[in-house]
Amino acid sequence: MQLVVARIGRAHGIKGEVTVEVRTDEPELRLGPGAVLATEPASTGPLTVETGRVHSGRLLLRFAGVGDRTGAEALRNTLLIAEVDPQDMPEDPDEYYDHQLMDLDVVLTDGTEVGRITEITHLPSQDLFIVERPDGTEVMIPFVEEIVTEIDLVEQRAVIDPPPGLIDDNAVVATGSDDDEDAGTGPDGAGKGESS
């Protein structure tokens, strides 16, 4: 099975290095020296990782046969694709490959159907499940332990316990009226005239 593990960014320096947007939890395994990667577009590859290093929090790679800035710049926006055994599992039991999560049924803790995972978006702060509901609409579910309480690969389902308003329109809204016990407080609990 082929999985996208990175996207090449801009050239770095003049010796053929490129920045890489990592899309795998195992960059040392998938993007290490000697790794041979297919590409999209296919005409760009395959590419063999020659060296890799971290600079200012970003992964920099150099590929065999790419020795200058012009060659590196020509690779910009190329997707790097690794061949992965579908039976492979991440070392951490609480981590999953995207292909394992795709098409899982999403249900509430009481078994109510929410929809099916159709896409996984990787953001800097967290991952999001894009879930298609039975009516064709989509909802985004943060893939965090507080919300996604269970991933059951045998039953092919993800169990969620969403806060009010995440998947429905029943969000609790503070009215600010005198009858409201919480009147005068903002969402962070600070009083109305206070600033942080």
Brief account:
The protein is mainly β and 196 residues long.
What is the radius of gyration? 22 Å
Sheet of most strands: 6 strands, antiparallel, barrel
Stretches where pLDDT is under 50 for at least 5 consecutive residues are 170-196
Q: How many strand segments?
A: 12
Termini distance?
50 Å
Q: How do the strands line up in the largest sheet? A: 1-2-5-4-3-6
Beta fraction: 35-45%
| Approximate shape | elongated
**Order of helix and strand elements from N to C terminus:** EEHEEEHEHEEEEEE
Count helical runs.
3
Q: What fraction, in percent, of the residue positions are helical?
A: under 10%
Structural class: mainly beta
Average pLDDT reading: 79
How would you explain this protein's 3D organization?
This protein has 196 residues and is mostly beta strands. 7% of the residues lie in helices and 39% in strands. The strands form two sheets. The chain has a six-stranded antiparallel β-barrel. Strands 10-9-8-7-12-11 form a six-stranded mixed sheet, with no helix packed on it. The C terminus is likely disordered.
